[in-house]
């Protein structure tokens, strides 16, 4: 008999963790070269292209982390119920994957077109903000309730994991807002050369993202630990 499908979904979930964090580390490392005034504008543009290419991986992992997690919750033998009815029947899992596919299409399109289609970016933002609101509420309820959603195995670890995922999504939006001045400043640098003002604008944009980057790294690592160890769970 082969391995249970549940195990393969766990493997996928862990692989998403690995590529999410690894890709983010690559983006951070590449950004250090973008900020080096000693490099030529062409070399810095190459570093920026590498940084942008690497950044797509974590974005994809962030999106797929949601439906893979919902699939794991649906397959769990002690899954959530309401009035005796499973909260994650298979049709809801399929719907989650369908929605994630739409979100993924928006995310990749926005990344590749660099915001040339405002409706794509607005759609991506709307999904992320909606998820933040829904998941923050679900996480708070799971952490506070005695038997959240009918689950009596003390799933507070799962509530904390959902909360960490919510923080990572919110931090990603913070990065986008902080990077808004970067594009115009880098365009001026490549067109007219380096000046202290342009270098300062670039550094403020990229280094201003560091607190959000640390939140994402901490959230991804923390969620991985919670998912593997499940502290306090009565399984």
From TrEMBL:
Keywords annotated in UniProt: Membrane, Transmembrane, Transmembrane helix
Task: Identify this protein by name.
Answer: Uncharacterized protein
What residue intervals traverse the membrane?
Answer: 6-35, 56-76, 82-104, 125-145, 157-179, 209-229
């Amino acid at each position: 008999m082969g391995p249970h499908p549940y195990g393969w979904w766990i493997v996928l979930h862990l692989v998403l963790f690995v590529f999410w964090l690894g890709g983010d580390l690559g983006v951070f490392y590449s950004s250090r070269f973008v900020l080096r005034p000693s490099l030529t504008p062409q070399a810095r543009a190459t570093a920026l292209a590498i940084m942008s290419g690497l950044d797509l991986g974590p974005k994809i992992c962030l999106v797929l982390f949601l439906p893979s997690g919902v699939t794991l919750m649906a397959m769990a033998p002690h899954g959530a119920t309401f009035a005796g009815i499973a909260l994650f029947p298979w049709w809801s899992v399929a719907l989650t994957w369908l929605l994630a596919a739409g979100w993924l299409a928006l995310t990749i399109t926005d990344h590749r077109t660099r915001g040339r289609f405002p409706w794509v970016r607005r759609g991506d933002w709307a999904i992320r903000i909606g998820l933040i609101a829904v998941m923050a509420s679900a996480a708070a309820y799971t952490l506070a309730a005695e038997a959240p959603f009918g689950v009596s195995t003390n799933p507070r670890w799962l509530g904390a994991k959902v909360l960490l995922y919510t923080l990572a999504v919110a931090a990603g939006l913070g990065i986008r807002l902080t990077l808004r001045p970067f594009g115009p400043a880098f365009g001026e640098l490549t067109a007219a050369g380096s000046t202290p003002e342009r270098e300062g604008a670039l550094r403020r944009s990229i280094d201003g993202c560091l607190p959000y980057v640390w939140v994402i790294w901490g959230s991804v690592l923390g969620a991985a630990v919670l998912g593997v160890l499940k502290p306090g769970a009565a399984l």
